[in-house]
Design goal:
This protein is of the alpha/beta class. It is built from 9 helices and 10 strands. Bound molecules: fe (iii) ion (2 copies) and zinc ion.
Length: 279
């Protein structure tokens, strides 16, 4: 099982690999630039190569790079849309040093332009930025659907995917907190949620899952993460997600509000409970 957490990229890429090992993870998520700023750090190919080797030697699953939060490819503002294109283009160029991994982004908020125009703009950015020969699959994250946020319904992701020129380079990353907050019955009927996703989007397009508990009840459209077992989803719900037979090869990533040591505890707990379930 590939289990990991969102790590700070402050010390570079190899450092994150070492931190992952220290907390019992065999995958991780990170920002590849300042999450709230537009500026990219200088690329250090030697550091990226050391991480690639560490991952190979330790049988890591694929990792997920997360786009900065300020990215909004369906903004009303042309400058903000072009910034999104530039940031994603730079990030994908960097990820070519780590072939075979994922780049996840929040589809964005259409800010009153309407769902259809929003999806058209998002697909337009993907078609501009994605190269058919690239080694990274770009993932749309399922969102809680607050405000004019796109991605709260599977149909919205489908609307984007239908307009993408390189469909094999684009997939989906689920987020358990967002989906429950968005009104999907993650707690009561995970099988039903997956069936619905398969019908609307296709399970073959699901490549990663953010495993977060939620501070708010289902359908609240809030998006406030909680630690595993400290929210409305509960440990049993998360366990059902990570042990589901259809999801066996996916990386599961914690974005819970705690530090590396706290994530290490959550990983140890989930591994122990998942092992019990298999016996
Ligand atoms: Fe996210
Ligand atoms: Fe997430
Ligand atoms: Zn969230």
């Amino acid at each position: 099982m590939y289990l990991g957490a969102h790590l700070s990229s402050a010390g570079g890429f190899e450092k994150m690999g070492k931190t992952a090992l220290k907390i019992g993870a065999n995958t991780f998520q990170c920002f590849v630039r300042n999450p709230r700023g537009a500026r990219a750090k200088a690329t250090d190919p030697a550091d990226l190569e050391r991480l690639r080797q560490l991952m190979a030697e330790n049988a890591f699953g694929p990792i997920v790079a997360h786009a900065p939060y300020i990215m909004n490819p369906c903004s009303r503002d042309d400058g903000i849309r072009r910034l999104a294109e530039r940031m994603m283009g730079e990030d994908l160029a960097l990820l070519e040093y780590l072939p075979g991994n994922y780049y996840n982004f929040h589809p964005g908020s259409h800010v009153g332009q309407g769902l259809e125009e929003g999806c058209r703009l998002i697909a337009g950015m993907l078609n501009w930025v994605i190269r058919p020969e690239q080694q990274t699959i770009v993932l749309l994250e399922t969102m809680a659907g607050k405000g004019s946020e796109i991605g709260g319904r599977f149909e919205e992701l489908r609307m984007i995917l239908d307009q993408v020129v390189c469909p094999e380079k684009v997939g989906v990353c689920m987020d358990t907190c967002h989906m429950s907050d968005g009104g999907y019955d993650v707690i009561g009927d995970w099988d039903g949620v997956l069936t619905e996703f398969d019908r609307v989007v296709g399970l073959h397009r699901l490549h990663a899952i953010h495993i977060n508990d939620s501070l708010n009840p289902p359908g609240s459209r809030k998006d406030r993460h909680a630690r595993i077992g400290e929210g409305t989803l509960g440990t049993e719900t998360i366990l059902r997600v990570i042990t589901h037979p259809a999801l066996r090869q996916l990386p599961f990533l914690l974005e819970t509000p705690t530090d590396d040591a706290g994530h290490g505890e959550e990983i140890a707990l989930l591994r122990a409970l998942a092992a019990q379930r298999r016996d």
